[in-house]
């Protein structure tokens, strides 16, 4: 039986990649963010997930405004990085689990989620940097199951819908017959809007961080328009956190939690949850 052992949520910005490359993790600009990760590394070392279910929003690599599914699920045996406009990336290979993917897809469709299924999928910075933050300077020891949520082309799915997606993902994992330790990873948020560089709503972010742990249902009735006003248009990346929370049981325990801003133009947060047995 597959089993959800915990969930890790993190903000992402592309310049995390430059900070890692330049070994800048300890500098004042980055320290407050990177300091969040040692407890996450300890937890991963102890728990050793076999698979991470990666919830994020594709940033235009696989889908663009002309063709944008609401939810897209990877079903490839392996994945690679794509060109995000900086030229072809150095080749890397990330192991998928297509047998699990097709179980997930069948389960989601039975659960009335009309998803796109992607037998090829390029991974962007949202996915790659989240994994590189979990396992710095090493090949990822876990397989990856990418799940993309549209926040790019309106209409985008409601928070309630994303929470229900997470619940359906949780049911799919629990009904998988093979022994598999699964960690849910959410990459995105918190408040930011790239064309309003510097717009960060720390009070709102801190409220979200509290509610996502203790009362996620209080977040589900925000309209998309209201959320964009409060958290910026890319603040909708918090849909990945909402879906993550839907996959987790009602009772959870915080292992570690950090808020740090500005993370580039973004309210930066890291959260590690465990089921509260
Ligand atoms: C930034 C944040 C993002 O979520 C992203 O995808 C790109 C850039 C930023 O704050 O710089
Ligand atoms: Fe982003």
Kindly describe this structure.
- Residues 7-257 form the Extradiol ring-cleavage dioxygenase class III enzyme subunit B domain.
- Keywords: Dioxygenase, Oxidoreductase.
- One of its GO terms (molecular function) is ferrous iron binding.
- InterPro entries: Xdiol_dOase_suB.
- The two termini are 17 Å apart.
- The protein has a single domain (2-275), classed as Protocatechuate 4,5-dioxygenase, Chain B (3-Layer(aba) Sandwich).
- α6 (159-174) packs parallel to α9.
- 34% of the residues lie in helices and 24% in strands.
- The mean pLDDT is 97.
- The longest helix has 16 residues, at 159-174.
- It has an eight-stranded mixed sheet, with helices on both faces.
- It has 277 residues and is α/β, with parallel strands linked by helices.
- 3,4-dihydroxybenzoic acid (DHB) binds next to loops.
SSE topology:
Elements: E1 2-10, H1 15-21, H2 28-34, H3 38-47, E2 51-56, E3 71-74, E4 78-81, E5 94-95, H4 98-110, E6 116-118, E7 122-123, H5 125-134, E8 143-149, H6 159-174, E9 180-187, H7 202-214, H8 224-231, H9 239-247, E10 252-263, E11 266-275
Helix pairs in contact: 4-6, 6-9
Bound molecules: 3,4-dihydroxybenzoic acid (DHB) and fe (iii) ion (FE).
Protein name: Extradiol ring-cleavage dioxygenase class III protein subunit B
Organism: Hirschia baltica (strain ATCC 49814 / DSM 5838 / IFAM 1418)
Pfam family, one: LigB
């Amino acid at each position: 039986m597959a089993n959800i052992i915990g969930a890790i949520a993190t903000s992402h910005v592309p310049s995390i990649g430059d900070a890692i490359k330049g070994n800048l993790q300890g500098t004042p600009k980055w320290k407050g963010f990177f300091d969040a990760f040692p407890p996450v590394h300890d937890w991963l070392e102890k728990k050793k997930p076999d698979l991470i279910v990666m919830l994020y929003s594709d940033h235009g690599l696989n889908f663009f405004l002309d063709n944008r599914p609401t939810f897209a699920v990877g079903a490839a045996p392996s994945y690679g990085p794509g060109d995000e406009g900086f030229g072809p990336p150095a080749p890397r290979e990330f192991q998928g689990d297509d047998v699990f993917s097709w179980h997930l897809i069948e389960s989601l469709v039975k659960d009335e989620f009309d998803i796109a299924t992607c037998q090829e999928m390029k991974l962007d910075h949202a996915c790659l940097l989240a994994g590189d933050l979990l396992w710095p300077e090493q090949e990822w020891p876990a397989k990856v199951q990418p799940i993309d949520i549209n926040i790019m082309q309106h209409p985008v799915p409601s928070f309630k819908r994303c929470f229900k997606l997470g619940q359906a993902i949780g049911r799919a994992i629990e009904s998988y017959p093979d022994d598999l330790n699964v960690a849910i990873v959410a990459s995105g948020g918190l408040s930011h809007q790239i064309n309003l560089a510097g717009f960060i709503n720390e009070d709102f972010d801190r409220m979200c961080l509290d509610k996502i742990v203790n009362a996620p249902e209080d977040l589900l009735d925000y309209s998309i328009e209201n959320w964009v006003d409060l958290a910026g248009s890319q603040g909708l990346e918090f849909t990945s956190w909402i879906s993550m929370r839907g996959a987790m049981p009602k009772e959870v325990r915080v292992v570690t939690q950090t808020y740090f801003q500005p993370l580039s133009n973004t309210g930066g947060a890291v959260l590690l949850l465990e089921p509260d047995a």
